[in-house]
From TrEMBL:
Location of the active site: S39, K42, S99
Domain SPOR: 354-438
Protein origin, superkingdom: Bacteria
Protein name as catalogued: D-alanyl-D-alanine carboxypeptidase
Entry binding sites for substrate: K201
Biological source species: Hoeflea olei
Length: 438
């Protein structure tokens, strides 16, 4: 557990808990120190997408064409080929659940003309929201030394998403969606596992460590918490659980609870019926043993869905908490690759939000098709239950005998013992499994 002074043991760590009703800081540890956002970047990409929807610049069924530049982005990605297109709503689901880098670049080029210009729009919006120490250089969060933020700024963005876009915010509670033959689970393992959690976003690169922004609404209290720089996905999640247990009960029950974030566009904030847009309340649930001898009111239960206000398509999709997305169809024309600001590579990471390619992990198979590897991971995750709680699924491509294969792996384990235990649990469910440290 990162505990009371995690920065002593982990110099990358930064954290904050903000009362979402009053804006009061309940906890802060290096909250104003610069950090790399990784895929938390996509929160701003989604903010600008939601803003364009509200202003009528795009619709949920508007098609977004993937340029060669977008299609070649490294994983995690949807794998849409250059010249093909998907809808804006499919882009949203791809960003929220899969954290798809190719979809982030595609919507950036669609809205900004180029990703470089869209990054300038992102930074400008950050300033308008009061995010004074954040600079964006791309729309996805892959390594760039100039792309930096703070835990406080990420909390500000999380609150702004909730307050400024109550109709669209509910996308962040989506558990999974189907794309082609594969079903992708949301990378946020706290959804449905911790009482009151309704989003928001995970992120990972080697330079950033494991990041997480979490929104919690429990009865008459509400917080947004940020953990940055976790050593593993599991330790990051445990630290977030600890922050929720320590500080949720310290949050106000009487704050306004509406529009405390700066910079709401006038066309969005005017006339919002905040009473009709309240986030869900959750009924009594059993206690969960946490951190040895501390009992806290967290529960393995799904929050009751809130009433959805807005478009019929959004209401239907979110009511089910799952989305089936068709295979992309060819677009009329290929959008020329957009110029991207010069990105100085921080590290050779090829994924923005899945597990690190180091430390203890488990492998459950190798497939000739990446979608088949993903399907295997999804089945294992469903069967593994608590044994895989906090683990991060990912695929790793490698070549053998002139053929390409995809290893299906889970990472983010604290050590050999937890990886071995997870394998034993999976073997009992009929899966092949072995633990490895590389």
């Amino acid at each position: 557990m990162l505990g009371t002074a995690p920065s002593v043991a982990n110099p990358k760590y930064a954290g904050i808990v903000v009362d979402a009703k009053t804006g009061k800081t309940l906890y802060a540890n290096d909250a104003d120190e610069l950090r790399y956002p990784a895929s938390l970047t996509k929160m701003m990409t989604l903010y600008l997408t939601f803003e364009a929807l509200e202003r009528g610049k795009i619709k949920l069924d508007t098609r977004v064409t993937f340029s060669a530049n977008a299609a070649k982005e490294p994983p995690t990605k949807l794998g849409v080929g250059a010249g093909n297109s998907i809808t804006v709503e499919q882009v949203i689901y791809g960003l929220v659940t899969k954290s798809a880098n190719d979809a982030a670049t595609a919507i950036a080029e669609h809205l900004g003309g180029s990703e470089a210009n869209f990054a300038k729009m992102m930074t400008s919006k950050a300033r308008a929201l009061g995010m004074s120490r954040t600079t964006f250089r791309n729309a996805h969060g892959l390594p760039n030394s100039g792309q930096q933020t703070t835990a406080r700024d990420m909390a500000t963005l999380g609150i702004a998403l909730r307050e400024h876009f109550p109709r669209q915010y509910k996308y962040f509670s989506t558990r999974s969606f189907k794309f082609g033959k594969a079903r992708f689970a949301n990378h946020n393992r706290l959804l449905g596992a911790v009482r009151g959690v309704d989003g928001i976003k995970t992120g990972y690169t080697r330079a950033s460590g494991f990041n997480l922004v979490t929104s919690v609404v429990d009865r008459d209290r509400s917080i947004v918490a940020v953990v940055m720089g976790g050593r593993t996905g599991a330790s990051r999640n445990e630290q977030m659980k600890d922050l929720i247990s320590r500080y949720l009960l310290k949050a106000s029950t009487k704050g306004r609870g509406d529009l405390i974030a700066r910079g709401a566009p006038a066309s969005i904030s005017a006339g919002i019926d905040t009473a009709a847009l309240q986030l869900p309340k959750v009924g009594p649930v059993p206690e969960l043993r946490h951190d040895g001898d501390t009992r806290i009111a967290l529960a393995y239960a799904t929050p009751t869905p809130a009433p959805v206000v807005g478009r019929e398509a959004l209401a239907k999709s979110l009511a089910a908490q799952k989305m089936t997305i068709p295979v992309p169809q060819p677009a009329p024309a290929v959008v020329p690759p957009a110029a991207i600001a010069g990105a100085e590579s921080i590290d050779p990471v090829t994924t923005a939000s899945t597990a690190a390619m180091s430390g203890w992990m488990i492998q459950i198979g190798a497939m000739p098709d990446q979608n088949a590897a993903r399907e295997l991971l999804a089945r294992a995750q469903s069967a593994g239950g608590k044994a895989l709680q906090g683990a991060e699924p990912f695929t790793m491509a490698y070549a053998t005998n002139n053929a390409q294969l995809y290893r299906a792996r889970f990472g983010g384990f604290d050590g050999q013992g937890s990886a071995t235990s997870a394998c034993k649990a999976l073997k009992r469910k009929g899966f092949a499994c072995w633990a490895t440290a590389n």
